[in-house]
């Protein structure tokens, strides 16, 4: 390998006339946390399934840990861990039975299997519940156990497909601490998510929508490259005011964020002065306008709007 754990060139997956993944190219560097950020149906899971050797591409090429995704699917499965959003656990088996089953799939046995099971139980904070059926476990423990099943054989590349979907923010934060530990140990992490705050944890990330990558860089670089200034308007009757703001010619994008109005306009434009004037002409009073830092959601909206998607 040349420093990349994953390489993809013009990868495409078509189902009939529908392009689930449409001619995408990217690399994932060895040891980095790489994210795919996009809404449901964007093509994230389909891409991961092709890279894991589960789904055959329609066109294009790619490799994982040096193995060709078209011709070496079985070899790929020996060097990756894969955790889907459904957690891939057997509810009617105990914790230990699940891990022994996963171990047998990966060819682990004897002392090595016992060592890895002990590691996973500690990581997942199983405690004394090793003989409890998985269906009785709390959501956060079940999530960590599913991750444990994926890394039982200590793979160099880990694919996590929407791994925190449906769990609460505290569990998500704990899960990301575990991911950081893996990355510090040299593992390559490829994670898909539709949570903007999670994408901030990635070293680099690709924004994907309708099967196409619309931007790719570090979160900081993506936000810095945004051609718009971002402002927050706080006003009491924000829903009524929003209609006036959205219609102003110098407003590039407006959206309601909680009880504020989030605004994008061209960088360098005297937004505060002009918006104040426009609001006062409409008889609006008691408002505040302040410039704020761009978010990944701003970046995503900007690129999607520019491409008309």
Any descriptors?
single chain; 6-stranded mixed β-sheet; 2 domains; 11 helices; 309 residues; 4-stranded antiparallel β-sheet; alpha/beta; elongated; Rossmann fold; Alpha-Beta Plaits; 28% strand; 14 strands
- Report mean pLDDT, rounded to a whole number: 91
Main sheet strand line-up: 6-7-8-3-9-10
User: How many domains, in number, for the residues?
Assistant: 2
Shape: elongated
CATH topology of the largest domain: Rossmann fold
The CATH homologous superfamily name of the largest domain equals: P-loop containing nucleotide triphosphate hydrolases
| Fraction of residues in H or I helices | 25-40%
Helix count, per DSSP? 11
So what's the CATH class of the largest domain? Alpha Beta
Count of individual beta strands: 14
Head-to-tail CA distance between termini? 36 Å
Q: What characterizes the major β-sheet?
A: 6 strands, mixed
* Gyration radius, rounded: 23 Å
- Contiguous runs where pLDDT drops below 50 for at least 5 residues: none
H/E series, N to C? EEEHEEHEHHHEHEHEEHEHEEHEH
């Amino acid at each position: 390998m040349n420093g990349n754990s994953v390489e993809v060139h013009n990868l495409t997956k078509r189902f009939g006339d529908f392009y689930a993944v449409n001619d995408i190219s990217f690399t994932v560097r060895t040891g980095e946390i790489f994210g795919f950020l996009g809404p449901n149906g964007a093509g994230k899971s389909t891409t991961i399934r092709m890279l894991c050797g589960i789904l055959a591409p329609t066109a294009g090429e790619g490799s994982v840990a040096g193995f060709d995704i078209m011709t070496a699917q079985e070899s790929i499965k020996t060097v990756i861990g894969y955790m889907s959003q459904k957690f891939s656990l057997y509810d009617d088996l105990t914790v230990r039975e699940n891990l022994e089953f996963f171990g047998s799939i990966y060819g682990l046995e004897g002392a090595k299997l016992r060592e890895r099971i002990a590691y996973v139980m500690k990581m997942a904070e199983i405690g004394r519940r090793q003989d409890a059926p998985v269906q009785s476990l709390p959501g956060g423990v079940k999530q960590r156990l599913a991750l444990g099943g994926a890394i039982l054989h200590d793979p160099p590349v880990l694919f996590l497909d929407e791994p925190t979907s449906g769990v609460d923010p505290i569990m998500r934060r704990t899960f990301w601490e575990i991911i950081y530990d893996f990355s510090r140990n040299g593992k390559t992490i490829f994670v898909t998510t539709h949570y903007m705050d999670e994408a901030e944890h990635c070293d680099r990330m690709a924004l994907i929508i309708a099967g196409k990558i619309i931007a790719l860089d570090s979160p900081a670089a993506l936000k810095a490259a945004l051609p718009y200034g971002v402002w927050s308007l706080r006003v009491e009757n924000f829903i009524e005011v929003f209609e006036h703001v959205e219609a102003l010619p110098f407003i590039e994008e407006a959206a309601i964020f909680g009880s504020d109005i989030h605004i994008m306009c061209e960088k360098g434009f005297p937004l505060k002065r002009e918006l104040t004037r426009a609001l006062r002409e409409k008889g609006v009073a008691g408002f505040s306008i302040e410039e704020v830092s761009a978010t990944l959601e701003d970046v995503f909206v900007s690129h999607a709007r520019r491409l008309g998607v």
